């Protein structure tokens, strides 16, 4: 006999400071490792010499003209900035998601949790992202994170450090929505076809495959949803665009770029984001398990065949 079983409630986990530390670790490792891809993606977005290049030819061009070390430009602010932002985002998502456990409203919970967590994380990220883009777009700007950040703060003050806050929100909130919401629903679809017994006895390989596949799809979604704002953010942080309010500057830059320009460099970024998001979720689970952290709040709607 077959019946439908829907999980409507799960005990809310009580996370400790040790648990939240494991969330921070997951954000740091994978973001720093993707620096070379991010360098090429940013060049394609803002440097006319790279406009017609793809990920592979762009990488070759960087190495040929500036040497292999150029691929690590901005590693400091990338690693530090995304360590802080990634940790705050993962920890914040777990925190806000556990405020509600209603399966009926799970979509709103996923969207709201991701958005709120990302907003606060971006307050920490924005100055470091501005520094990173300056270093990547102009290798003579500074020698590294500290000198670049200091120069930007000295010459532009808070207004320059946070010039990209609005576009970074426009970029990162859709990114977080794609990352977390799509990942959750991919897992839900995978588990929905399994009985509780099958799910409990899943092999390590099967779990890894589900995590990897869900992460890749979520990465593609995150990249596509956030790419137009990512392109505009690169332009803003390089000093492009007219004077005036941020909304006016964004509107003018968007018109100048056009649809094709707004999605320049999407291919490399999809590769980067798929690797980043899938790697992050895999490491996130592995680190949590290694540190003995409890599982996160799960509010999937699952339909399983039970005999």
Task: Compile the SSE list and pairings.
Elements: H1 17-33, H2 35-46, H3 55-66, H4 75-97, H5 106-137, H6 145-161, H7 165-192, H8 196-200, H9 204-237, H10 246-262, H11 266-290
Helix pairs in contact: 1-4, 1-11, 2-3, 2-11, 4-5, 5-6, 5-7, 7-9, 9-10, 9-11
Structure description:
The chain is mainly α and 307 residues long. Helices cover 72% and strands 0% of the residues. The chain is built from eleven helices and no strands. Helix 2 runs antiparallel to helix 11. The longest helix has 34 residues. 43% of the residues are buried. The N terminus and C terminus are likely disordered.
Short overview:
This protein is an all-alpha fold and 307 residues long. The chain contains eleven helices and no strands.
- The helix fraction, in percent, is over 70%
Whole-angstrom Rg: 21 Å
- The helix-strand sequence is HHHHHHHHHHH
Oligomer: single chain
Total strands: 0
Structural class, from secondary structure content?
mainly alpha
User: Regions with pLDDT < 50 over 5+ consecutive residues?
Assistant: 1-10, 303-307
Major sheet, described briefly?
A: none
- Calculate the terminal CA-CA distance, rounded to whole Å: 5 Å
Whole-number average pLDDT? 79
Please state the overall shape, judged from the principal axes of the Cα atoms.
Answer: globular
Q: Work out the helix count.
A: 11
* DSSP strand content: under 5%
Q: What brief labels describe this structure?
A:
11 helices; disordered N terminus; mainly alpha; 72% helix; disordered C terminus; single chain; 307 residues
């Amino acid at each position: 006999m077959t019946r439908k079983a829907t999980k409507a409630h799960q005990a809310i986990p009580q996370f400790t400071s040790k648990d939240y530390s494991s969330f921070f670790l997951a954000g740091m490792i994978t973001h720093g490792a993707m620096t070379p891809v991010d360098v090429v993606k940013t060049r394609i977005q803002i440097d006319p010499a790279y406009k017609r290049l793809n990920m592979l030819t762009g990488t070759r061009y960087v190495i040929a003209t500036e040497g292999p070390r150029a691929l690590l430009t901005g590693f400091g602010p990338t690693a530090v900035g995304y360590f802080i932002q990634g940790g705050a985002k993962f920890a914040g998502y777990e925190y806000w998601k556990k405020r509600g456990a209603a399966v009926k409203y799970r979509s709103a919970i996923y969207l709201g949790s991701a958005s709120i967590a990302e907003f606060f994380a971006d307050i920490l990220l924005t100055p470091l992202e501005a520094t990173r883009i300056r270093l990547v777009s102009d290798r003579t700007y500074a020698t590294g994170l500290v000198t670049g950040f200091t120069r930007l703060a000295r010459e532009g003050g808070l207004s320059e450090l946070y010039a990209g806050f609005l576009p970074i929100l426009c970029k990162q909130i859709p990114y977080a929505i794609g990352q977390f919401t799509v990942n959750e629903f991919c897992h839900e679809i995978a588990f929905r076809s399994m009985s509780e017994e099958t799910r409990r006895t899943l092999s390590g390989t099967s779990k890894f495959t589900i995590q990897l596949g869900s992460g890749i799809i979520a990465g593609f979604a995150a990249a596509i949803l956030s790419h137009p704002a990512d392109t505009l953010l690169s332009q803003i942080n390089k000093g492009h665009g007219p004077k005036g309010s941020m909304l006016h500057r964004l509107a003018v830059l968007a018109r100048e770029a056009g649809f094709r320009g707004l999605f320049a460099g999407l291919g490399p970024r999809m590769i980067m984001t798929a690797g980043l998001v899938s790697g992050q979720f895999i490491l996130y689970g592995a680190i949590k398990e290694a540190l003995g952290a409890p599982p996160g709040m799960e509010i999937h709607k699952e339909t399983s065949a039970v005999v």
